[in-house]
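An instance follows:
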Amino acid sequence: MPKKEYPLTQLSHFLPEGSYEQIARYLHYYKVHLTISRERRSLLGDYRHAHLNRNHRISVNGNLNPYAFLITLIHELAHLVTFEQYGNRVQSHGKEWKQLYRHLLEQFLGKGLFPGDVEAALNKSLHNLPASSCADENLMRILRNHDHPDQKQVLVEELPEGALFEIDGGRVFQKGKKLRKRYQCKELATGKLYLFSGLYEVLNHQL
């Protein structure tokens, strides 16, 4: 199953110490149906607004470290609050969402919930919040420093040019030059070129 139900009290195992009570208040107040998902490379979390007899629904990847989990959950809660206030009348990552996301984040800063490097990165990003946590590469690199060593995989940017790497599904690529923010990589089986974020996690490949 891609998602797993957890009693709300077990949510504390996924969060930084000291953050559960405040998060639980938001989830209770807005009657959020929260699920913990297995790893999804294309997104860290997801929000679906209340519809007919269904409550607001949020999912967050369960493989995230506690700080990344909390940031992702706050990101999705900001979508919920934006929908509560504006419905579908505003852009999903427009100024209204950014204002509410900033307001929610600030409720968790300055309380010792995040390590110093993560808190500094969050304070910096408050001035220009990205549409996705994944888009804030500086924050993603810092959060990765707090991953468990056994869960870390190689990043595209850590490989030398010309190295081979494998992604989910067994497709093999050769790393090429960096073009602005992404790396141009050639798929060996087809010769087609693809652009990869430097932060994309891959497997080393041996011929």
Summary: The first strand starts at residue 3 and ends at 4. The longest helix spans residues 66-86.
